[in-house]
Specification:
Elements lengths: L6 H11 L4 E5 L4 E3 H17 L7 E5 L4 H13 L2 E4 L6 H11 L3 E4 L3 H8 L8 E4 L7 H6 L3 E4 H5 L16 E7 L7 E6 H11 L10 E4 L6 H13 L2 E4 L5 H11 L3 E5 L2 H6 L14 E5 L5 H8 L2 E3 L1 E2 L8 E2 L13 E2 L3 E6 L12 E7 L13 H7 L5 E9 L5 E6 L4 E3 L2 E3 L1 H8 L5 E10 L5 E9 L7 H9 L10 E4 L13 H7 L6 E2 H12 L1
Parallel strand pairs: 1-11, 3-4, 3-5, 5-6, 6-7, 10-11, 10-12, 12-13, 13-14, 25-26
Antiparallel strand pairs: 1-2, 8-9, 15-16, 16-17, 18-19, 19-20, 20-21, 22-23, 24-25, 26-27
Helix pairs in contact: 1-2, 1-9, 2-3, 4-5, 8-9
Length: 534
């Protein structure tokens, strides 16, 4: 695999060939051409270098999807430094963990994050400088109290010039350190090589079906591969990427029409949210003609007809690069996520990594024929890397089956990750926050089915002896301690948790019991309150 299609090099080529063509568009109207983005990325590289950032240094970027966020990333790519994208909703121990575990020397973020940093400042032993994008919160006594330098973006970039002397990355170099929610421990940083990013982007859509006049609607954050991938994909295509920091059902069609978006990705409940909106006679009268949908909705045929789109599907995770996808726009049924992509091998195996026959359920393992097209490992976690790569196969931790026609089917999560509203949630991290409540002895977080697709979070709580835990007060306690998407919808009180002889919680039993008649439901309570107020 050569260098020419790797992210920064391909942008440089586009900037030379079609400098004035718009590439990035923010939904509020700001935009950047290929030439502008390339020049600004090199300017960021020079600013980083002047600030002492060098190859292999880690810099955390905690920004909403924006032109600045892409420049912050690309500048580090040119330097050979490692970008650590951070979930913009993180607070408290989760924010401290990712900054501390990565050893990030610098953080690029927004003014409101400074107040979150103040609360965890004693745990940020590596952090030396914070660059603030937007606002004026880097001024005054508050910033002076923080134990690291705080610099506004304008001052950070002042005097920087495009760094034209940088060689840029090779396929094996790391494009980003993307933290993915832990299941048996805290989140781990996935080392994503540039070759993996390219391999992922090449299969995210069928790039041969698109061209410079196409636009990709990207309502995803840049701390997810669903946000990173389209940047590389549409550099290959030569079209535009339209960015919204997060998905908004009410704004979806307005954005599509306003910016002429022709393709997008719909993850999890997004397709359901769109489909369940009231029908309009002009639902199909939009520029959108192609959707990658993961997973497929039951009403797929009506979805395609109603909105005038063709649909494909796939399976991916941060550690891999879309080894399974549908055959073009042909979908054999509503359950399969596709067939094995050329250049990849997959197996469904038992606990001894022995291949299982069609119809059997086991763990999906993957390998690629091209070097560096799967993750290079977990940052600073050699044991976890060896475990994931045992027997020379990458273990996904997901349960699959396949049929005699070679179609693969996702069955369940072997791990305890909960997926809600497009976010992977670590059950351990939910439990850590719940267990901080003074009335809680122990807890277990599990996934329960959501009527919108994907999962909802249920927390099973064992109160301390003589204490009462009211679900309302517990949720209020958690609201300021974790991102909104992690706050449990369901709270179930229990006298004890089912455990193995070695003391491990048997979550399979909790999932099987699911939502019982006595389980508190925050959504039901919210709806009841709305009805009462009418």
């Amino acid at each position: 695999m050569g260098r020419q299609n790797l992210l920064p090099h391909l942008l440089a080529s586009r900037a030379e060939a079609t400098p004035d063509r718009v590439f990035l568009v923010e939904v509020d109207g700001r935009s950047a051409t290929f030439a502008e983005l390339h020049s600004e990325a090199l300017r960021w590289a020079d600013a980083y270098r002047r600030a002492g950032v060098g190859a292999a240094d880690r810099v955390a970027v905690m920004l909403p999807s924006s032109i600045e966020a892409v420049c912050a990333w690309l500048g580090l790519c040119w330097l050979g430094a490692l970008e650590v994208p951070v979930n913009t909703a993180y607070v408290g121990r989760m924010l401290a963990h990712i900054l501390g575990d990565s050893g990030s020397r610098m953080l690029v973020t927004t003014p409101d994050a400074l107040y979150r940093l103040e609360a965890i400042a004693d745990h940020l032993c590596f952090l030396e400088r914070v660059v603030v994008v937007g606002g004026d919160s880097c001024e005054g006594e508050f910033a002076a109290r923080l134990p690291f330098d705080v610099t506004g973006l304008e001052d950070f970039l002042d005097g920087a010039r495009p760094a034209l002397d940088l060689r840029g990355p090779e396929p094996s170099d790391i494009s980003t350190v993307m933290y993915t929610s832990g299941t048996t421990g805290a989140s781990k940083g996935v080392l994503v090589p540039f070759a993996q990013l390219l391999a992922t982007a090449s299969a995210s859509i069928f790039v041969g079906d698109f061209g410079p006049d196409d636009a990709y609607y990207m309502p995803f954050p840049l701390f997810h591969i669903s946000g990173k991938g389209p940047i590389q994909t549409f550099l290959l295509v030569g079209g535009r990427v339209v960015m919204r920091p997060s998905f908004n059902t009410d704004r979806f069609w307005t954005d599509i029409k306003r910016h002429g978006c022709t393709t997008t990705l719909l993850l999890g409940a997004m397709a359901n949210f769109i489909y369940r909106r009231p029908q309009r006679p002009d639902d199909a009268a939009t520029p959108l003609h192609t959707v990658v949908m993961v997973p497929l909705v039951r009403e797929l045929e009506d979805f395609r007809r109603r909105f005038g789109v063709r649909v494909s599907t796939a399976f991916n995770m941060t550690e891999i690069s879309v080894p399974i996808h549908s055959e073009g726009w042909y979908l054999p049924n509503l359950e399969s996520c596709g067939k094995v992509r050329p250049g990849y091998e997959v197996r469904v195996v038992n606990e001894n990594d022995e291949a299982l026959p069609p119809g059997s359920v086991g763990e999906l393992i993957v390998r690629s024929r091209e070097p560096w097209s799967l993750m290079a490992g977990y940052f600073n976690r050699p044991e976890a890397t060896l475990e994931a790569w045992r027997n020379l196969w990458l273990h996904t931790g997901d349960a699959f089956r396949y049929d005699t026609e070679g179609n693969y089917y996702f069955v369940d999560r072997v791990k305890d990750t909960i997926r809600r509203r497009g976010e992977n949630i670590s059950s351990m991290e939910v439990e850590a926050e719940v267990n901080e409540h003074p009335g809680v002895l122990e807890s277990a977080a599990v996934a329960v089915a959501s009527e919108w697709g994907e999962d909802e979070v249920m927390i099973v709580v064992v109160p301390r002896e003589g204490r009462v835990v009211e679900p309302d007060s517990l949720i209020e306690f958690l609201a300021d301690r974790m991102p909104k998407f992690m706050v449990p919808r369901f709270v179930r009180l229990a006298g004890s948790l089912p455990k193995t002889p070695t003391g491990k919680v048997r979550k399979v039993e909790l999932r099987a019991e699911g939502v019982t008649p006595s389980t508190w439901d925050g959504e039901a309570k919210r709806q009841a309150g709305e009805r009462a107020s009418r």
